[in-house]
Amino acid sequence: MKDSLGRTIDYMRISITDRCNLRCRYCMPYGIQASRCQDILRFEEIQEVAACAASLGIRNLKLTGGEPLVRKDCCHLVEMLKAVPGIEKVTMTTNGVLLEQYLEDLVKAGIDGINISLDTLDERIYADLTGSDSCGQVVEALKHAAQVVPSVKVNAVSLDLGRENWIRLVELAEKLPVDIRFIEMMPVGYGKEFDSVDHRDLLEEMKGRYKGMEKDRTRHGPGPAVYYQIPGFSGSIGFISAIHGKFCSSCNRIRLTAKGYLKTCLCYEDGADLRSILRAEPVTAEERQERLREAFREAVWKKPAAHCFEEPEHMTETESMVSIGG
Ligand code: SAM
Ligand code: SF4
Q: Whose CA is nearest to atom 17 of ligand 1?
Protein backbone atom coordinates (compact mmCIF):
# COMPACT_ATOMS: atom_id res chain seq x y z
CA MET A 1 0.00 0.00 0.00
CA LYS A 2 1.40 3.42 -0.91
CA ASP A 3 0.49 6.73 0.63
CA SER A 4 0.25 9.97 -1.33
CA LEU A 5 3.99 10.60 -0.77
CA GLY A 6 4.95 7.24 -2.25
CA ARG A 7 5.87 5.64 1.08
CA THR A 8 5.23 1.90 1.21
CA ILE A 9 3.06 1.00 4.20
CA ASP A 10 3.63 -2.64 5.16
CA TYR A 11 3.69 -2.64 8.97
CA MET A 12 0.75 -2.41 11.36
CA ARG A 13 0.86 -2.22 15.15
CA ILE A 14 -2.23 -3.66 16.77
CA SER A 15 -3.14 -2.68 20.31
CA ILE A 16 -5.20 -5.50 21.77
CA THR A 17 -6.02 -3.95 25.14
CA ASP A 18 -5.71 -0.64 26.93
CA ARG A 19 -5.21 -2.35 30.29
CA CYS A 20 -1.80 -2.79 31.86
CA ASN A 21 -0.21 -4.41 34.87
CA LEU A 22 2.42 -1.65 35.23
CA ARG A 23 2.11 2.07 35.88
CA CYS A 24 5.04 3.54 33.95
CA ARG A 25 5.33 7.19 34.88
CA TYR A 26 5.57 8.42 31.30
CA CYS A 27 2.73 6.25 30.00
CA MET A 28 0.02 5.34 32.49
CA PRO A 29 1.04 6.58 35.94
CA TYR A 30 -2.40 6.58 37.55
CA GLY A 31 -4.14 3.85 35.60
CA ILE A 32 -6.90 4.76 33.17
CA GLN A 33 -10.59 4.26 32.82
CA ALA A 34 -10.16 1.01 30.85
CA SER A 35 -12.55 0.55 27.93
CA ARG A 36 -15.57 -1.66 28.30
CA CYS A 37 -15.02 -5.17 26.92
CA GLN A 38 -17.67 -4.68 24.25
CA ASP A 39 -15.82 -1.62 22.95
CA ILE A 40 -12.62 -3.57 22.34
CA LEU A 41 -12.26 -5.49 19.09
CA ARG A 42 -12.86 -9.21 19.41
CA PHE A 43 -10.16 -11.57 18.10
CA GLU A 44 -12.27 -12.41 15.02
CA GLU A 45 -12.59 -8.70 14.26
CA ILE A 46 -8.85 -8.14 14.64
CA GLN A 47 -8.25 -11.07 12.31
CA GLU A 48 -10.68 -9.65 9.76
CA VAL A 49 -8.92 -6.27 9.83
CA ALA A 50 -5.55 -8.01 9.52
CA ALA A 51 -6.78 -10.01 6.52
CA CYS A 52 -7.95 -6.83 4.85
CA ALA A 53 -4.65 -5.09 5.65
CA ALA A 54 -2.71 -8.06 4.27
CA SER A 55 -4.71 -7.96 1.05
CA LEU A 56 -3.50 -4.36 0.68
CA GLY A 57 0.15 -5.11 1.37
CA ILE A 58 0.65 -5.17 5.15
CA ARG A 59 3.23 -7.89 5.86
CA ASN A 60 4.30 -7.36 9.48
CA LEU A 61 2.09 -7.15 12.54
CA LYS A 62 3.17 -6.13 16.03
CA LEU A 63 0.86 -6.83 18.96
CA THR A 64 0.96 -4.20 21.66
CA GLY A 65 -1.27 -2.68 24.33
CA GLY A 66 -1.58 -1.61 27.13
CA GLU A 67 0.09 -4.83 28.01
CA PRO A 68 -0.81 -7.47 25.39
CA LEU A 69 -0.15 -10.41 27.72
CA VAL A 70 -2.90 -9.32 30.13
CA ARG A 71 -5.50 -10.07 27.46
CA LYS A 72 -6.91 -13.55 27.89
CA ASP A 73 -5.86 -16.07 25.22
CA CYS A 74 -3.51 -13.62 23.61
CA CYS A 75 -1.33 -16.52 22.35
CA HIS A 76 -4.32 -17.82 20.43
CA LEU A 77 -4.58 -14.47 18.66
CA VAL A 78 -0.94 -14.84 17.57
CA GLU A 79 -1.88 -18.16 16.00
CA MET A 80 -4.93 -16.62 14.28
CA LEU A 81 -2.85 -13.80 12.82
CA LYS A 82 -0.08 -16.12 11.69
CA ALA A 83 -2.73 -17.94 9.66
CA VAL A 84 -3.72 -14.82 7.69
CA PRO A 85 -2.55 -15.17 4.07
CA GLY A 86 0.05 -12.51 3.23
CA ILE A 87 1.18 -11.89 6.80
CA GLU A 88 4.87 -12.73 7.08
CA LYS A 89 5.72 -11.84 10.66
CA VAL A 90 3.77 -11.49 13.89
CA THR A 91 5.72 -10.00 16.76
CA MET A 92 4.87 -8.50 20.14
CA THR A 93 6.01 -5.75 22.44
CA THR A 94 5.59 -6.51 26.12
CA ASN A 95 6.75 -5.24 29.49
CA GLY A 96 7.86 -8.84 30.12
CA VAL A 97 6.22 -9.24 33.53
CA LEU A 98 4.03 -12.15 32.37
CA LEU A 99 6.40 -13.36 29.67
CA GLU A 100 7.80 -16.41 31.45
CA GLN A 101 4.24 -17.64 32.00
CA TYR A 102 3.32 -17.37 28.30
CA LEU A 103 6.64 -17.92 26.55
CA GLU A 104 6.10 -21.55 25.65
CA ASP A 105 2.62 -20.85 24.23
CA LEU A 106 3.87 -17.86 22.27
CA VAL A 107 6.61 -19.98 20.71
CA LYS A 108 4.09 -22.73 19.92
CA ALA A 109 1.81 -20.12 18.31
CA GLY A 110 4.69 -19.14 16.04
CA ILE A 111 5.69 -15.72 17.39
CA ASP A 112 8.48 -14.29 15.21
CA GLY A 113 9.93 -11.80 17.63
CA ILE A 114 9.45 -10.22 21.04
CA ASN A 115 10.42 -6.73 22.16
CA ILE A 116 10.75 -6.35 25.90
CA SER A 117 10.42 -2.88 27.36
CA LEU A 118 13.00 -2.41 30.08
CA ASP A 119 14.33 1.06 30.85
CA THR A 120 16.72 0.06 33.60
CA LEU A 121 18.31 -2.95 35.29
CA ASP A 122 18.36 -1.17 38.64
CA GLU A 123 15.56 -2.63 40.78
CA ARG A 124 15.08 0.57 42.73
CA ILE A 125 14.83 2.79 39.64
CA TYR A 126 12.60 0.20 37.98
CA ALA A 127 10.21 0.23 40.94
CA ASP A 128 10.15 4.00 40.93
CA LEU A 129 9.43 4.12 37.17
CA THR A 130 6.88 1.33 36.93
CA GLY A 131 5.40 0.97 40.41
CA SER A 132 6.41 -2.70 40.42
CA ASP A 133 9.16 -4.91 41.82
CA SER A 134 9.26 -7.17 38.74
CA CYS A 135 12.64 -6.10 37.38
CA GLY A 136 14.43 -9.38 38.17
CA GLN A 137 11.50 -11.40 36.82
CA VAL A 138 11.61 -9.49 33.51
CA VAL A 139 15.36 -10.00 33.16
CA GLU A 140 14.98 -13.75 33.74
CA ALA A 141 12.20 -13.92 31.12
CA LEU A 142 14.40 -11.97 28.72
CA LYS A 143 17.25 -14.46 29.12
CA HIS A 144 14.89 -17.36 28.55
CA ALA A 145 13.23 -15.70 25.53
CA ALA A 146 16.65 -15.11 23.97
CA GLN A 147 17.08 -18.87 23.81
CA VAL A 148 13.75 -19.79 22.26
CA VAL A 149 12.41 -16.83 20.22
CA PRO A 150 13.90 -16.03 16.79
CA SER A 151 14.37 -12.34 17.53
CA VAL A 152 14.45 -10.63 20.93
CA LYS A 153 14.98 -6.92 21.45
CA VAL A 154 15.03 -4.70 24.51
CA ASN A 155 13.38 -1.29 24.25
CA ALA A 156 14.54 1.35 26.71
CA VAL A 157 13.09 4.83 26.70
CA SER A 158 15.93 7.35 26.89
CA LEU A 159 15.21 9.04 30.17
CA ASP A 160 18.17 10.70 31.79
CA LEU A 161 18.87 8.00 34.35
CA GLY A 162 22.63 8.41 34.35
CA ARG A 163 25.58 6.82 32.62
CA GLU A 164 25.59 3.67 34.69
CA ASN A 165 22.01 2.99 33.57
CA TRP A 166 22.73 2.86 29.85
CA ILE A 167 26.01 1.03 30.37
CA ARG A 168 24.26 -1.82 32.18
CA LEU A 169 21.62 -2.03 29.45
CA VAL A 170 24.19 -1.96 26.62
CA GLU A 171 26.20 -4.68 28.31
CA LEU A 172 23.24 -7.04 28.20
CA ALA A 173 24.10 -7.34 24.49
CA GLU A 174 27.62 -8.50 25.26
CA LYS A 175 26.63 -12.07 26.07
CA LEU A 176 22.99 -12.25 25.02
CA PRO A 177 22.04 -12.28 21.32
CA VAL A 178 19.57 -9.44 21.84
CA ASP A 179 19.45 -5.97 20.35
CA ILE A 180 19.28 -3.18 22.92
CA ARG A 181 17.36 -0.21 21.54
CA PHE A 182 17.12 3.24 22.99
CA ILE A 183 13.96 5.20 22.18
CA GLU A 184 13.80 8.97 22.39
CA MET A 185 10.91 10.02 24.59
CA MET A 186 8.08 11.43 22.49
CA PRO A 187 5.76 14.16 23.77
CA VAL A 188 2.69 11.94 23.62
CA GLY A 189 0.42 11.70 26.66
CA TYR A 190 2.40 11.81 29.92
CA GLY A 191 5.60 11.66 27.85
CA LYS A 192 5.19 15.44 27.49
CA GLU A 193 6.26 15.80 31.11
CA PHE A 194 9.65 14.15 30.55
CA ASP A 195 12.81 15.22 28.79
CA SER A 196 14.47 12.79 26.44
CA VAL A 197 18.18 12.25 26.22
CA ASP A 198 19.40 13.51 22.83
CA HIS A 199 20.60 10.40 20.99
CA ARG A 200 23.35 12.30 19.21
CA ASP A 201 24.94 12.88 22.63
CA LEU A 202 24.27 9.33 23.80
CA LEU A 203 25.90 7.86 20.70
CA GLU A 204 29.00 10.04 21.15
CA GLU A 205 29.30 8.93 24.79
CA MET A 206 28.96 5.30 23.79
CA LYS A 207 31.53 5.61 21.03
CA GLY A 208 33.89 7.12 23.59
CA ARG A 209 33.46 4.12 25.85
CA TYR A 210 33.32 1.34 23.27
CA LYS A 211 36.22 1.66 20.85
CA GLY A 212 35.44 0.28 17.41
CA MET A 213 31.66 0.78 17.77
CA GLU A 214 30.51 0.96 14.18
CA LYS A 215 27.32 1.24 12.19
CA ASP A 216 25.70 -2.14 11.62
CA ARG A 217 24.19 -2.13 8.15
CA THR A 218 22.47 -5.52 8.37
CA ARG A 219 18.68 -5.39 8.46
CA HIS A 220 17.18 -6.00 11.90
CA GLY A 221 13.48 -5.77 11.03
CA PRO A 222 11.00 -3.35 9.50
CA GLY A 223 11.47 -0.52 12.04
CA PRO A 224 13.28 2.83 11.98
CA ALA A 225 16.10 1.94 14.40
CA VAL A 226 19.68 2.71 13.38
CA TYR A 227 22.02 -0.02 14.66
CA TYR A 228 25.62 -0.13 15.83
CA GLN A 229 27.86 -3.10 16.54
CA ILE A 230 30.39 -3.19 19.36
CA PRO A 231 33.34 -5.54 18.75
CA GLY A 232 32.87 -8.80 20.64
CA PHE A 233 29.19 -8.19 21.46
CA SER A 234 26.52 -10.74 20.48
CA GLY A 235 23.72 -8.22 20.02
CA SER A 236 23.62 -4.77 18.45
CA ILE A 237 22.74 -1.38 19.90
CA GLY A 238 19.85 0.46 18.24
CA PHE A 239 18.66 4.04 18.34
CA ILE A 240 15.09 5.04 17.58
CA SER A 241 15.38 8.79 17.40
CA ALA A 242 12.03 10.26 16.51
CA ILE A 243 13.09 13.71 17.73
CA HIS A 244 16.78 14.12 16.83
CA GLY A 245 16.83 11.74 13.89
CA LYS A 246 13.42 12.24 12.36
CA PHE A 247 12.57 9.29 10.10
CA CYS A 248 9.08 10.30 8.87
CA SER A 249 10.14 10.29 5.21
CA SER A 250 10.61 6.53 5.39
CA CYS A 251 7.75 5.76 7.79
CA ASN A 252 6.12 2.45 6.86
CA ARG A 253 3.58 2.05 9.65
CA ILE A 254 -0.01 2.42 10.73
CA ARG A 255 -1.65 1.61 14.04
CA LEU A 256 -4.90 -0.05 15.06
CA THR A 257 -6.13 0.87 18.54
CA ALA A 258 -7.85 -1.61 20.81
CA LYS A 259 -11.18 0.08 19.96
CA GLY A 260 -10.62 -0.44 16.26
CA TYR A 261 -9.50 3.04 15.21
CA LEU A 262 -6.91 3.09 12.44
CA LYS A 263 -4.25 5.73 13.12
CA THR A 264 -1.76 6.89 10.53
CA CYS A 265 0.60 9.02 12.65
CA LEU A 266 1.39 9.16 16.38
CA CYS A 267 1.09 12.93 16.37
CA TYR A 268 -2.39 13.36 14.91
CA GLU A 269 -5.81 11.89 15.51
CA ASP A 270 -6.47 11.39 11.77
CA GLY A 271 -7.53 7.94 10.69
CA ALA A 272 -10.59 5.74 10.27
CA ASP A 273 -13.08 4.14 12.61
CA LEU A 274 -12.92 0.51 11.47
CA ARG A 275 -15.01 -0.79 14.36
CA SER A 276 -18.10 0.95 13.07
CA ILE A 277 -17.57 -0.74 9.70
CA LEU A 278 -17.00 -4.12 11.34
CA ARG A 279 -20.19 -3.80 13.37
CA ALA A 280 -22.48 -2.19 10.80
CA GLU A 281 -25.48 -4.32 9.88
CA PRO A 282 -26.74 -5.78 7.72
CA VAL A 283 -23.88 -6.27 5.29
CA THR A 284 -22.36 -9.30 3.66
CA ALA A 285 -18.80 -10.33 4.46
CA GLU A 286 -17.76 -9.19 0.97
CA GLU A 287 -19.34 -5.77 1.41
CA ARG A 288 -17.67 -5.38 4.78
CA GLN A 289 -14.26 -6.27 3.36
CA GLU A 290 -14.76 -3.76 0.56
CA ARG A 291 -15.71 -1.02 3.03
CA LEU A 292 -12.73 -1.84 5.19
CA ARG A 293 -10.43 -1.76 2.18
CA GLU A 294 -11.82 1.60 1.13
CA ALA A 295 -11.33 3.02 4.64
CA PHE A 296 -7.73 1.72 4.73
CA ARG A 297 -6.90 3.19 1.32
CA GLU A 298 -8.41 6.57 2.14
CA ALA A 299 -6.74 6.86 5.58
CA VAL A 300 -3.35 5.71 4.32
CA TRP A 301 -3.51 8.07 1.35
CA LYS A 302 -3.93 10.96 3.78
CA LYS A 303 -1.14 9.84 6.12
CA PRO A 304 0.57 13.02 7.37
CA ALA A 305 3.98 13.78 5.89
CA ALA A 306 5.68 14.13 9.26
CA HIS A 307 5.13 14.42 12.98
CA CYS A 308 5.26 17.81 14.66
CA PHE A 309 6.79 16.88 18.01
CA GLU A 310 9.01 19.96 17.76
CA GLU A 311 5.83 22.06 17.96
CA PRO A 312 3.55 20.09 20.29
CA GLU A 313 0.91 22.83 20.10
CA HIS A 314 0.13 21.54 16.57
CA MET A 315 -0.44 17.97 17.72
CA THR A 316 -4.05 16.87 17.53
CA GLU A 317 -3.61 13.49 19.25
CA THR A 318 -4.94 13.65 22.78
CA GLU A 319 -4.86 9.95 23.68
CA SER A 320 -2.08 8.57 25.88
CA MET A 321 0.48 5.98 24.75
CA VAL A 322 -1.28 3.23 26.65
CA SER A 323 -4.31 3.67 24.38
CA ILE A 324 -2.26 3.98 21.19
CA GLY A 325 0.22 1.19 21.84
CA GLY A 326 3.51 2.99 21.28
N1 SAM B 1 3.08 -2.61 27.55
C2 SAM B 1 3.87 -2.91 26.42
C3 SAM B 1 5.31 -2.45 26.61
O4 SAM B 1 5.56 -1.72 27.56
O5 SAM B 1 6.13 -2.83 25.76
C6 SAM B 1 3.33 -2.37 25.11
C7 SAM B 1 2.73 -0.98 25.11
S8 SAM B 1 3.90 0.33 25.45
C9 SAM B 1 2.89 1.74 25.23
C10 SAM B 1 4.93 0.29 24.00
C11 SAM B 1 6.23 1.04 24.11
O12 SAM B 1 5.96 2.44 24.12
C13 SAM B 1 7.07 0.76 25.35
O14 SAM B 1 8.37 0.38 24.94
C15 SAM B 1 7.10 2.07 26.06
O16 SAM B 1 8.31 2.26 26.76
C17 SAM B 1 6.95 3.05 24.90
N18 SAM B 1 6.49 4.39 25.27
C19 SAM B 1 5.48 4.74 26.08
N20 SAM B 1 5.35 6.09 26.14
C21 SAM B 1 6.32 6.59 25.33
C22 SAM B 1 6.70 7.92 24.94
N23 SAM B 1 6.07 8.98 25.39
N24 SAM B 1 7.73 8.05 24.08
C25 SAM B 1 8.38 6.96 23.60
N26 SAM B 1 8.06 5.70 23.91
C27 SAM B 1 7.04 5.52 24.77
FE1 SF4 C 1 2.08 -0.43 30.58
FE2 SF4 C 1 3.77 -0.51 28.51
FE3 SF4 C 1 2.62 1.80 29.26
FE4 SF4 C 1 4.42 0.73 30.85
S5 SF4 C 1 4.78 1.46 28.75
S6 SF4 C 1 2.39 1.54 31.49
S7 SF4 C 1 4.11 -1.42 30.55
S8 SF4 C 1 1.59 0.04 28.44
A: 326
Q: Lowest-pLDDT range, 117-121, 193-197, 255-259, 287-291? A: 193-197
Q: Determine the pLDDT at residue 189.
A: 87
Site residues for ligand 1, CB cut-off 6 Å:
20, 26-27, 64-65, 67, 93-95, 117, 155, 157, 183, 185-186, 188, 191, 321-322, 325-326
Q: Which CATH number fits domain 11-324: 3.30.930.10, 3.90.1150.10, 3.20.20.70, 2.40.50.140?
A: 3.20.20.70
Atom of ligand 2 nearest to the CA of 21: 1
Q: Domain ranges for the chain, please list them.
A: 11-324
Beta-bridge mates of residue 153: 115, 179
pTM score of the predicted model? 0.96
3-class secondary structure for 145-156? HHHHCCCEEEEE
> Is residue 8 pLDDT above 90, yes or no?
yes
Which of 26, 97, 98, 142 maximizes ligand 1 atoms within 8 Å of its Cβ, making it the mutation to test the pocket? 26
| CA atoms in the 13 A half-sphere facing the CB of 286 | 0
| Span 38-62, pLDDT tens digits | 999 999 999 999 999 999 999 999 9
Pocket test for ligand 2, best of 14, 19, 28 (most atoms within 8 A of CB): 28
- Distance (Å) of CA 240 to CA 44, 69, 200, 260: 33, 24, 11, 26
